Amino acid sequence: MASGSPQRYLPRVVRAPRSGPTRRRLLGGGLAAAILALTGKPARAIGPGAKFRFGQLQLGAQWKNPRPSALRRLGWEIEKRTSIDVQLEPAIVTPQSDNLHETPFLYLTGDRELELPSAAGIESLRRFLTFGGFLLIDSAEGSTDGAFDGSVRKLMSAVFPAVGAQKSLEIVASDHVVYKSFYLLDKPLGRLAISPAMEGIMRDGRIVAAYVSNDMGGAWTRDDFGNYDFRCEPGGERQRELAFRMGVNLVMYALCLDYKADQVHVPFIMKRRRWKPDDGASLPDKSKP
Amino acid sequence: MNIVLFSSLVRYCLAGAFLVLMIATVLAVRRGKGGLGAALGVAAMLSGGALAAEALVALTVRLAAPGAADFNEYRWVMLAPWGRIGLGLGAGAVIGIVALSWRASRGAPAWRRATMIGLRAGAAVGALVVFLQPAVELRQVAREPNRIAILIDDSRSMGLAEAPNGPTRIERTRQLIENSKATLATWEQNHKIDYYTFSETVSPTSPTGLINNTAQGKGTLIRKALETIRSRYEGRDLAGIVLISDGAATGGFVEDSGDGAVRDFLRSLDTRVHTVWAAREGLKDVAVAKVMADEFAFVRTVVRIDAMIRTTGMPARQIPVTLSTDGQPLRQKLVDLPSGDREVKVTFEVTPPRVGRYVYEVSVPVAAGEAVTTNNTRSFVVRVIRDKIRVLQVAGQPGWDVRALRQMLKSNPNVDLISFFILRTQDSISLVPNDEMSLIPFPTRELFEQELPSFDLIILQNFEFLPYGIGDYLENIRSYVDGGGGFAMLGGGASFTSGGYFGTPVAAALPVELYGPFDKGAVLDTAKFAPQLTDAGTMHPVTSLRYSAGDNLATWKALPQLEGVNLIAAAKPEATVLATHPKLKTRNGKPMPVITAMDYGKGRSLAVTTDSVWRWGFVAAARSGDNGRQYTKFWENAMGWLIQDPALHNLHVDSDAVEYTPGQPVRVTVRLVGRDYQPLPGGAVALVVKRGADPNRAEQVATAKVTVGDDGTVVHELGSAVTLTPGVYRVEAKAKIAGRDVEATDIFLVREGGTELDRPTGDPATLESIATTTRGSSLGPIDKLPSDLELDPPRIVRVDRRTDVELWSRPGLLILVIGLLGLEWLLRQRSGYL
After folding, report:
1. Same domain assignment for residues B19 and B127
2. How close are the terminal C-alpha atoms of chain B, in Å?
3. How far apart are CA B692 and CA B703, in angstroms?
4. Could you tell me what percent of chain B has a pLDDT over 70?
5. Which end is more exposed in chain A, N or C (fewer Cβ atoms within 10 Å of the end residue's Cβ)?
6. Contact check, Cβ <8 Å, A16/B494
7. Which residues numbered 23-42 in A keep a CB inside 8 Å of some CB on B?
8. Alpha-carbon distance A218 to nearest alpha carbon in chain B (angstroms)
9. Residue B276 C-alpha from the chain's centroid
């Protein structure tokens, strides 16, 4: 992505180099390089609060997380694969948690019927999503028409009812920027591949909520010994890799929105207004009388 | 009064013809050609008869009217009622009689035959006279002299001399009038001469009045002058117009001279216009003849300026053509000028860096011997406006702060946003082929070298430069800000000191001092905090989230806490700290700046040393009734301040035009609004008017103090205080709002009206066209007016006495007719034809 020697600086121990090969810079750079070698990837966020952190949405007292390690594992992969700093431990939040807006990316999973939140909870979720939050719903029940699926549709209809041209859940087209926000993908695979497409709710030109039925969390989760908890069917490890990539893309989309849609337009944007004179004139040489 | 039928020439011709025909008749008869001899003889007799008839008429009039010498004019009248038809019939009868006589006299000797025919013809003519009853009306008349208008060009081009020590065109005109005294005296026998000068208007003058005329007219409106003269003599007798000019017409006459409309106009004058070319060949001049540029342009977008450089009378050579503004050269081109009278187009392209009015000037150097130097420069005004704000956002990693800023900028329809986010670093594990990823190379050279100046605002957000090899481009960013760009650095673990910017050119443009490599202590703090507005911050455009200071402070206190801050060594002395950390201190013991602003060169920079401003939007929106608007408001403020948006100014001064002519009143509107952008009634504003393209060397020419009205505005007329001569002017306005100085500047141009000296070369073709179309004479470059110039005679006649002399009723005429017939009869009898 970029060339040049990386020079890393860590919070509380940073000493900045000057540009140019000065003695101080070499000294500072050497120190930083030594620390880098000992600690791995440097953090770029100022503190834990500035790091990306999943919010694990909990609906109802009876809700149980069927994929407890999935987000930690996905976070680890994101940390390693991208430039995003990730706080691995997700925050458990409910629609009416005070800290709901501290984690703009919410993840909701389940394998059974959900207990829908109260009207205040629905309003809180709507507010969260309207003002910039993102909700990823991942079905772990292995079915596209099960109880979890039904309650998700009820929930989404309650939060964003279809009004006029605005739909509630709709199919996210395979050429949507979410499929190319980091990796180039064409469908949202998970532990399973029972649904060929992602559904989502679009508002103000962006996906505010995405719903995947293929149990992506099932592909991500591992046990304490590092073994994946589930086999991915029918695609095996390639499918698992694609599930991770989809997870990375979703997080990247939440953080960058349609940034990757910009890229195809860059040459046009850069050239459409000419600012640089090419008339062959020169600046007058003031050294001459 | 002598009555003549023929002019002298015709009379001589008739006499000559008579002699020649007589000789020819003799020769023909001797050679035995009787028919030819008879015909020639008849012709000789007709020629002689015509001369005799003229003498007879004169004799008759003299006998009939002994006092004819008192009459000075005569005319023929026919008393018979037959009119032209009778004249035609009578002439036909005479011809018929001659033809019959010719036929009847066949066989007669040539001389006799010719005599018989001649006598019968004479008798027939005599009978015709009796039939038509002609008379001569003798009149004693007096003619009113008509007018000659001498129209003399006294525009400024007439003050030019073709040679350095030679006469000017107006001097040459004066000499022409002096040399033409005899001619003018001749003309004055039948005409009266009126003298006029013309340039933009027509004024009566006299030969003595011309002596002090220095030719200062600002235009050469030939058509208008002719119209004026024609209307002045409407209904009066005009003998003709003598137009003396160099032909360097302004006002579109030259361009339209070939048009039918102009031709019709010239013919409608209904008088001859004789033209005299007052100029001569050999004038030397190099001029910026014309500049073509749009009046409006977009900031940071190329403006094309076409200049026509005209050379006259100069040898082929190469000259520099310079485009400058504010007295400083911007661009220069070497142009090959051919010899002769030619025009060469030069094209410049410039990129206005900021919104506002710009006075540009295209100039060429003054050559030795040039007749006109004022046309070597040409100034013009371009209003530079903004269509969209071009923002470059470069982020070192995705994050909520990055996303929030991007979303805000993308949703602003006035922003053209180009974002570049580092999505993966060299530390990231990559087991995936690149063709399965959407990543693109970071276009460092394109962004930081080629396209950098095209942006209005550059935002580096948690971005460290070293890994991406852009260290060499940091000087470009500094010079970009120095040149007028807006620059903001936002906090993060890879920003400010942590981003390695200490000692770099970018650090020079930052409003804060960074920690060096050997400074001890942390460079980041991760605790949550509520930033405190400084005194400056309560009033500064960037941090004014509400109109009133009290509301603003309350709004800031209600904002969600921020989390984490980049520690900096200190704010720069020239910077303005707007918000600080409530606990942390800089190394000089002052509160740690969080939001700091600074003017750098012609640009502005802003340092926000945290990566958690997004919380003012999304986290604030968790509270019912708070839509997170303050985040957007803060960045809109910051963006407007960074790009120096005129809409954010509290004081405005605008002249009512961009160009004026000398003496024309200049009105400026002053508008003063408070921090809440509401009018400030009664606010005092000091105005200073300076003259000069270079603001550093401009000369103060006027000052004024004005007070704005209830609507916060006042209109002040500068012309009443000072007469503005040609040049570039700046109006600087200063006022105080709540103890803070505010300033505004406007620029305008005063230039000579018209284009009189734009084309100083004399143009004889224009004058020739006028003369030809009006049936006048194109006299060209003469030194003296010709006495035989074709002028219309006076048409207004006063008849004092008249008498008619009838020719037909004279007894002599009857005797003559009878005598001729008798002779013819006698001759015929003796010839055996009776």
Report:
1. yes
2. 45
3. 15
4. 97
5. C
6. no
7. 24-25, 27-28, 40-42
8. 22
9. 26
Q: Do B427 and A85 touch (CB under 8 A)?
A: no
Domain count, chain B: 5
Tell me, yes or no, whether B786 lies in a domain: no
Do B492 and B532 lie in one domain? The reply is: yes
Residues 107-166, chain A: which have Cβ within 8 Å of B? 127-128, 131-133
Q: pLDDT digits over B335-354, tens only?
A: 999 988 889 999 999 988 87
Residue window 161-180, chain A: list those with CB within 8 Å of chain B.
Answer: 180
Please indicate whether, in this complex, the C-beta atoms of B350 and A181 are within 8 angstroms of each other.
no
Please report the ipTM that was assigned to this predicted complex.
0.84
- Interface contacts A/B by beta carbons within 8 Å: 313
> Which one is predicted more confidently, A25 or B269?
B269
Residue B685's domain spans which residues? 649-750
A146 CA to chain B: closest CA distance, Å? 33
- What does the pLDDT look like over A256-287, one tens digit per residue? 998 888 865 566 555 555 666 676 677 665 44
Asked, for residue B788, whether it belongs to a domain, the answer is no
Separation of CA B456 from chain center: 35
Residues B118, B685: Cα–Cα separation, whole Å: 109
β-sheet with B457-461: strand ranges across: B415-421, B389-395, B457-461, B486-490, B603-608, B591-600, B576-585, B532-533
CB atoms within 10 A of CB B463: 26
Tell me the average pLDDT across A6-23.
35
Q: φ and ψ at A7, to 5 degrees?
A: -125, 115
CATH superfamily of A48-267: Domain of unknown function DUF4159 (3.40.50.12140)
Q: What is the pLDDT of residues B499-539, one digit of tens each?
A: 999 999 999 999 999 998 888 888 899 999 999 999 889 87
Q: Are B180 and B782 in contact (CB under 8 A)?
A: no
CA torsion angle for B590, B591, B592, B595 (degrees, to 10)?
-120
Of A2, A47, A245, the CB nearest to B422: A2
CATH classification at residue B242: 3.40.50.410
Task: Decide: residue B252, CB within 10 A, 0-12 exposed, 13-18 middle, 19+ buried.
Answer: exposed
Chain A, residues 231-250, CB within 8 A of chain B, namely 245
Q: Which of A3, A275, A283 to mutate to test the interface with B (most CBs of B within 10 A)?
A: A275
